[in-house]
Write a structure and sequence with these properties.
Strand content: 25-35%
Distance between the termini: 58 Å
Number of strands: 9
Number of domains: 2
Radius of gyration: 19 Å
Structural class: mainly beta
Helix content: under 10%
Order of helices and strands: HEEEEEEEEE
Number of helices: 1
Length: 131
């Protein structure tokens, strides 16, 4: 008896990269696609170097940070260069210094896209764009 099993593997083209020595690293993002042209001139977009001379303490005490998460359905997606979790509905919020930021999505990269004082040594990072 011969059994044949077929499956489809979706291969995504790597559009950009974070590794040194790669032509798709951050210094070249503005040249990779015309809609990414702003990356060539931007100064404060990902990846971010969290350097001692530019870091600012935003939350002076934990009293200024209020977390209010709620159970909510979510979808996890593999976007190729990161894994994303997108919540459907009201997943709650974080209040920082009196301003509410509502949780809609978070994603993580491995290795980390960000660095600390110029060193990108973290195994991964999690980003949560809040609205």
């Amino acid at each position: 008896m011969i059994t044949t099993i077929g499956f489809l593997v979706q291969v995504r083209k790597i559009e950009f990269d974070y590794r040194n020595g790669n032509e798709k690293r951050p210094e070249h993002w503005g040249e990779l696609k015309k809609e990414w042209a702003a990356c060539k001139y931007g100064k404060l977009q990902s990846p971010i170097d969290l350097s001692d001379d530019r870091a600012t303490k935003v939350i002076p005490s934990l009293e200024d940070l209020q977390i209010s998460y709620k159970p909510c359905n979510a979808t996890m997606k593999n976007e190729g260069h990161y894994i994303a979790m997108e919540w459907k509905g009201d997943a709650g919020s974080v209040k920082i210094n009196g301003t509410d930021y509502f949780l809609k999505q978070c994603h993580w990269h491995s290795p980390s896209e960000h660095s600390i004082n110029g060193i990108r040594s973290l195994p991964f990072c999690i980003s949560a764009p809040l609205s």
